[in-house]
Specification:
mainly alpha
């Protein structure tokens, strides 16, 4: 088991240790260093950064793959082409499905309007027949409830469509800090 002195951080004590770790030097010791020691403690760091983005690796990396096996670059390019083709096929399938859903939704709404119109005509015919046969109370109740039902459906559909079309507020719109 290591002793506590070896596991704890100790301060450098000799001149060579101080020269190796200039960041640990006390300010009084830094000023006492000879010029040769000062120069030897200065390090320069050069950082070279590059950024490559895309479905294929950087050409230099492809060249390194070629040094391993000459068929690797061709296989990597083929893989990227196949992935791109697959992505476009998926996007096309999704777009066609969205168009098909929109067509079905439009047809459903149109059929709903046709059946609602037919129902209104039948109810008005029944109300007219009841009114002509001296059943005015029943005719007025049927007419009143039908009209209220139709108006309720129309009003609710408009409210629902407004809620669906209304974009959700963003944080910048609702935040009290961003209000002018």
């Amino acid at each position: 088991m290591p002793d506590s002195e070896s596991t704890s951080k100790r301060q450098p004590t000799t001149d060579t240790e101080l020269a190796k770790k200039p960041s640990n030097l006390p300010s009084s010791t830094q000023s006492n260093l000879e010029p040769e020691q000062e120069e030897s403690t200065q390090d320069s760091v050069t950082l070279i950064a590059s950024h490559w983005e895309g479905p294929l690796p950087h050409p230099n990396i492809l060249h390194e793959y070629a040094s391993i096996d000459s068929s690797f670059p061709e296989r990597i390019v083929r893989m990227a082409e196949e992935q791109s083709r697959h992505r476009r096929e998926l996007e096309r399938t999704i777009t066609l499905a969205e168009v098909e859903d929109a067509v079905k939704d439009r047809l459903e709404r149109r059929l709903g309007q046709i059946f609602a119109t037919g129902l209104v005509v039948v109810v008005l015919g029944v109300v007219l027949w009841l009114g002509l046969n001296d059943r005015t109370v029943v005719a007025s109740i049927l007419a009143g409830t039908s009209i209220i039902g139709i108006l309720t459906i129309l009003v609710l559909r408009q409210r629902v469509s407004k809620l669906i079309e209304k974009p959700s507020p963003t944080a910048s719109d609702d935040s009290p800090l961003h209000r002018s």
